[in-house]
Amino acid sequence: MTAALAIGAVALASASGVLGAALRRRPALGQRLSCAVLCTASALGIAAAVPALAGGGGFEIRQAWQEPFASLSLRLDPLSALFLIPVLAVPALGSIYGVAYWPQEKLGARAVRLQIFYGLVTGAMAMVVLADNAMLFLFGWEVMAVCAFLLVLSDPDRADAQRAAWVYLAAAHVGTFALFGFFSVVGSARGSFDFAAWQGLPAAGAAGGGLFALLLVGFGLKAGLVPLHFWLPGAHAAAPSHVSAVMSGVLLKTGIYGLLRTTGFFEAPPLAWGMVLLALGAVSAALGVGLALAQHDLKRLLAYHSVENIGIITMGVGIALVGRARGEPALVLLGFAGAALHVVNHALFKSLLFFGAGSVLHATGTRDIERLGGLAKVMPWTASLFLVGAAAISGLPPLNGFVSEWLVVLGSLRALDLPRADRAAFAVLAAPTLALVGALAAACFVKVQGVVFLGNPRSDDVARARESPREMLLPMAVLAAACLAIGLAPGLLLPSLTRGAASWAGLSTDALAAPASAAGASATGVSLGAAVLLAALGLLVVLRRRLGLLRGTAPRSDTWGCGYAHPSARMEYTASSFAQILVQGFRFALLPRVELQPPRGLFPGFARFATSVPDAVLDLAILPAVRAYGVAAGWVRGRLAGRIHFYAVLVLATLVALLAWRLLWW
Amino acid sequence: MASWTDMVFVLVVVLDLFVLASSRLGAAIRAVALQGALLSLLALLLASQAHDMGHVLLLASGAFAIKAVLIPWLMFRAIREAAIRREVEPIIGYVPSMILGGAGVVLAFAFSRGLPLPTPEMHPFLVPTALATVWTGLLLVVSRRKAVTQVLGFLVLENGVFVFGLLLTDIMPVMVEAGVLLDLLAAVFVMGIVMFHINREFASLDTDAMTSLKD
Amino acid sequence: MLLRAFFQLGLLLLLPPLLLGVVNRVKAVLAGRQGPPVLQAYYDLAKLLRKGAVYSRTTTWVFRAGPAIGLAAVATAGMLLPVAGEPAVASFAGDFVLFAYLLALARFFTALAALDTGSSFEGMGAAREVSFASMAEPALFLCFVVLARATGALSLSGMLGPALAPAWRQASPALLLAAISLFVVTLAENARIPVDDPSTHLELTMIHEVMVLDHSGPDLAFILYGASMKLFLFGALFVRLVLGFRFDSVWAAEAVFVGGLLAFAALVGLTESVMARLRLTRVPQMLVGASVLSVFALVLLLR
Fold first, then answer.
1. pLDDT tens by residue, A529-538
2. What is the average pLDDT across A244-270?
3. Residue A551 and residue C49: Cα distance in Å, rounded?
4. Would the CB atoms of B95 and A585 count as touching at under 8 Å?
5. Which of A89, C22, C54, C276 is a Cys-bridge partner for C265, taking CB atoms 3.0 to 4.6 Å apart?
6. What is the CA radius of gyration of chain C?
């Protein structure tokens, strides 16, 4: 039954766009129909996943297939179910958003193409999460990558979209190549490409280390771990907003799913793996949020925050691996629960934020926050919902971001329980790192919310803004409500997360029972704290209202600001100034560029000052390396191209080399 | 209450971090002087009954006289001659230097247990403190622009070596220890004279301004 | 038990403005002046609650909600605080994380309310506040982690409870460094000299004062009260960390706690009188220094 639901979900989701294309004559109806089909598919899939999380109802299917090495094997266990839910829910909400944001009646063929690939990418992601065979996994992975590339190119006339899409495609294929390497090695060692045959892989020694490196490159490129994140900002900024929501919210998580699934195959992962993931996650989180602070393109900023949150999730996975290496069930449970819950939470609030950014772009036509301001007066609902997302991503109680970060911090603190003088106890340094990252994220979102929605308009782009239509507000409201619900009652999700941890680590749920009940008791404390907060807030608001009625309020006036005579919008604090203290303080890591044309002469005329923070990895390492390679290759081509003899010699040399290798070494 | 020796070692490391963070030369010189005084105190605290008390007292008072009195006096004279009071922004920057110094301290304390030692360890904090102080001294020499601070870095480095030397007071005779102290004194003397001449010649002790002296 | 809970709640609600009064009195006496009465903050609160409020045309509901959210968050954090070594009203493993993030919530909305006015002064104050707070947060967390390692407990009540006295015997250098670091963080988070000057309105020196320039009437009363409560929270942490003794009688413990708090307020006043305000570029260095001290304390306990 659940198998039929899941397979139906995958099929319907993939086909949803095609249905819309068939009704090209009636574009509005076609788009709404494909949206409805995608939502149905998502409902079916979630209905299949929830029983698997609740303890029963997972399934495994095995079917032979003509393709070499492949078989139609699908599996739904608690780990897959945890990922399946956001994979299906976010695109469904995005398609509702897209009805008003990227309407087929206005954009015609482009919107039809987007619908097709949107459905396909959802179906491919669901297939990746359900696959139990390496070739099926790679098939879904490749479809996902290509469809995402085409989705980023939805607006093909823009130069930044073209460049970002090519960088994305190149990065995705390097990652797939690494995965091919991993799967081939393990598959030929085990003799079968079904994941079921891969349990109990040995992790020790150089072979294990090499496999781990391949996994890191392959899944790290997809997830966006520093320094493999360079494709992320461009691609997520250039895509249409509901596509960016899917890419940031869910596509990156398939990398994390792959990392979890493959590390689950190994018998006894050594301590070094967990510490490496912990360190990489910490660097990604810190660098991601630092670079986000320096951005002024709203969507690029949100993309860098995705890098930060992937770093937090990776830290949770690292802690769980440390727990497996040391045999501490508390670390395994808390690390995995924090990581998995943050996967869901990030999908929720990042989509909410991207929808908000899309609304702002739709209303004002610009993504540059330095040209915005005062939007809350014309778009009150969008502003309030964006505020919920901003508070959630900063990890503030009583919302969901706090709960998952709290679980990861609790996990790192449990490392103190390890025996004295154990190096693994240094995992506790993840806690202050998370504090730094959280505080910097809060700083960044104060800046974004304040500069975009509050204060006075900084340019004329704001003048034509109107509140978004209902179809764009509804998904945002649903996501905001979900954020609040998870933040208020985290203890309800702990049993499902425990089952996920048990299935991943190969432990029984009884082994994890003690830490689970301890975590549950603490989670009740968090809910209590959230409830007290809301009660105190309600009390104070009522008190303030009564005082306001008693004392009266003077009519509105200008901002006092210590005695402004004629306040104007140019006097407002800009976003660059807001971020300046932190960008200057951390300039050894962020490497800001300054372009200065100072005023010269006795009667100075024109002067110019601009700062920018390029992506260090892309602009300082990869692009120069690629250019150097291009120059070298051009030199070789100039010397040798066009001569037939040269090509023939190459063919002959390769043949001779292969024969020699086969005869002499193999 | 943990032992006083623990406190002294911790204070030595805290003084290292203070010198890394300080931009005022007077405060930095006083901190290095205090560190020297603490090291002479350490020599007394770590002495066991097996030692000759006279030898230990000689070492401690010699260290105090040279590290805490004579050399700081020479340094203060040098900066008065050159009329400088503050350090300019170092090559690495204060915040990254503090982070690097802190990282050095953490790594020293975390991993020093693995180091093979010729004698049994006198105190668990001794080797990490020595390593951390040596690291701080080298960081100062490498990253600071004013020659005075580089000399201070050299002094901190010598303090670290002195702490290592305390480990070996059982085997090394007093001659070698005296030799170390004398060598330190000579080096600082020479550096003081050189700095005085540099300042007189170029009216500046900023090593950035002296890069054209090559070839 | 219920009586003790009421007493703790009463302390949390009634004592904070007195701390502000003591700080200002100590500063005045050291400067050779008479100074305002010690109960001045109470009179100020009463006066502000009697007034009406003026709002700017530029502001939205965020400006009006900011003070209420800030005060609610700080008061909820007070529920998690153990007083005088007895367990807090609510305590669970990892509650210090909730404590720190509740204070971050208060700061988030105060900064947003400042940006809502559209004035460059308030924007500047908000920028400085969130930047310095992000550098103080790791230092605060590291102090908590040092305490957790030294006492073996993961909740505030456990860390500052009966396990603290034996921890001081075993690990005094580390706890001393953590206490110094906590004091530096207290000065930074509560906008005291050497980080900020709470008594002037010059642009060069303001961080917290300038964020709340446009609030008036009961809103300003909420903000003033919230700031004093935050000072009380940090003071309670510091006092309990330093005076970690066990007492047989609960009332003796409470008396020592209140006395310690007043001494803490006097210490803050003394520090403010003796030190000059740091140049703003030096504040990050000071906060990073506090973090490095706490990391060193942690490493001492981890080896």
1. 999 999 999 9
2. 92
3. 9
4. yes
5. C22
6. 19
**Phi-psi region at A381: left, alpha or beta (left = phi > 0; alpha = psi -120 to 50):** alpha
Q: Is A607 exposed, middle or buried (0-12, 13-18, 19+ CB in 10 A)?
A: exposed
Chain-centre distance for alpha carbon B134: 8
- Asked if A588 is an interface residue toward chain C (Cβ–Cβ < 8 A), one would say no
* Cβ separation B2–C169 shorter than 8 A: yes
User: Domain of B141?
Assistant: 4-213
Of C46, C47, C49, C45, nearest to C218 by C-alpha is: C49
Using DSSP, state whether B28 is helix, strand or coil.
helix
Query: Tokens in use for C178?
Result: 């953590």
Q: Are B134 and B161 spatial neighbours (Cβ–Cβ below 8 Å)? A: yes
Q: How far does C238 lie from chain B, in Å, by closest CA?
A: 19
Q: In chain C, how many domains are there?
A: 1
CA-to-CA distance for A168 and A154, rounded, in angstroms?
14
A436–chain C nearest CA distance, Å: 5
Q: A138: which 2 tokens? A: 């790679």
**Residues 6+ away with beta carbon under 8 Å from B167:** B117, B119, B121, B122, B126, B127, B130
C-alpha distance across the termini of chain C, in Å: 40
**Beta-carbon separation of A588 and B96 below 8 A:** yes
Q: A611: which 2 tokens?
A: 């700062």
How many angstroms separate the CA atoms of A569 and A534, rounded?
Answer: 35
Pair of tokens at residue A417 = 């329980």
Q: Where are the alpha helices (DSSP H) in C161-213?
A: 164-170, 172-189, 208-211
Please check whether residues A498 and A624 belong to one and the same domain. Answer: no
Does A149 score more than 70 pLDDT? Answer: yes
Q: Are residues A577 and A643 in the same domain?
A: no
Chain C partners within 8 Å of A380 (Cβ):
60
Do residues A88 and A126 touch, judged by C-beta distance below 8 A?
A: yes
- Residue B203 CB coordination number (10 Å): 10
Average pLDDT over residues C253-279: 90
Question: Chain A residue with minimal CA distance to B96?
Answer: A588
Q: How confident is the model at residue A285 (pLDDT cuts 50, 70, 90)?
A: very high
Q: Are A305 and A487 in contact (CB under 8 A)?
A: no
Chain C positions in Cβ-Cβ contact with residue B7 (cut-off 8 Å):
172-173
Residue A638 and residue A509 share a domain: no
The parent domain of residue A432 ranges over 270-541+573-598+606-614
Nearest Cα neighbor of C138 from B154, A429, A302, B108 is A429
Give strand pairing partners of A181. none
Q: What is the pLDDT of residue B176?
A: 57
- 8 Å CB contact of A421 and B113: yes
Helix runs in A108-200, H state only = 109-130, 134-152, 159-190
Q: Is A491 on the interface with C (CB under 8 A)?
A: no
Does the ipTM exceed 0.90? yes
Written as one letter, the residue type at A611 is T
CA quadruple C127, C131, C136, C138: dihedral sign: positive
- Is A556 at the interface with chain B, CB within 8 A? no
Same domain, A502 and A628: no
| C295/B95 Cβ within 8 A | no
Position B1 confidence tier, pLDDT thresholds 50, 70, 90: very low
Separation between Cα atoms, residue A284 and residue A290, nearest integer Å = 10
A659 in the same domain as A525: no
Domain encompassing residue C37: 14-191+199-302
**Cβ-defined contact of A394 to C145 (cutoff 8 Å):** no
The whole-number average pLDDT for the span A423-429 is 85
Domain presence at residue C2: no
Considering chain A, what is the average pLDDT of its residues?
89
Give yes or no: residues A526 and A633 share one domain: no
Taking an 8 Å cut-off on Cβ atoms, the answer to whether B95 and C169 are in contact is no
| Residue, of B163 and A393, whose pLDDT is higher | A393
A473 lies in the same domain as A524: yes
